[in-house]
Hints:
Nucleotidyltransferase, domain 5; 2 domains; alpha/beta
Amino acid sequence: xxxxxxxxxxxxxxxxDRLHRKNKPDxxxxxxxxxxxxxxxxxxxxxxxxxxxxxxxxxxxCSPNTILRLMGQLNLSVTLYSRHTSGYHxxxxxxxxxxxxxxxxxxxxxxxxTVLHTDITQVRLLDHSWxxxxxxxxxxSREVITVIVRNSANKEQLHLTLDDxxxxxxxxxxxxxHSDQGWQYQTxxxxxxxxxxxxxxxxxxKGNCHDNAPMESFFNLLKRERLxxxxxxxxxxxxxxxxxxxxxxxxxxxxxNKNGLTPIEYRNQAAV
Length: 272
């Protein structure tokens, strides 16, 4: 042994220290399993900060740096899939009612169901068709209140979106709902419906996507974290993927800006 160590130019103490470490149980074994599961359950979008919050919730005693180091050992790194996609433009000029911009980019609502945001985006499918996603989110909690996926951005999709919203609005609330100046939102049907529901409509300035930044942010996350990760063959598959993501987003996706709460947790806390 002495000759082998000399040949390897390895001190005797170093050899036995490494041997001891190799035979020693891994004190982070359970945490590593938790990290891998949490990472994969998050569609591989959680970095070490979010995983650290989840680990603390699960009663692991560890630091953010420990999570970062273990993720490196496990070869886990976040990959967000960004690619250019054709934007959906529903603006056709002034074809109906254009509401005032009541928000002026002041996105500071803290109480759920006081300010809502809505918009429509499109996704190219493998069968050479388009899928259109109409959604409404809550500004305070970032909860996706309703999402409707259809093969056309028409009045029917808008009616279904409002029908679903009507089922979920708490009694007595009179929120602002902010949209762009898309033709759907200017129609008499939309304007009459939201007023009948006790909702106050607000609109972005023409061509200014920053006026509806919370909605733009959600659609950006949806595409980078989920839709851009795989080819989507048809509308039915798009519906399944979007609905699964929204369920996870509302119930499981924690936000660093909301002290590690999910949208549903934020809403429930605000109701106490």
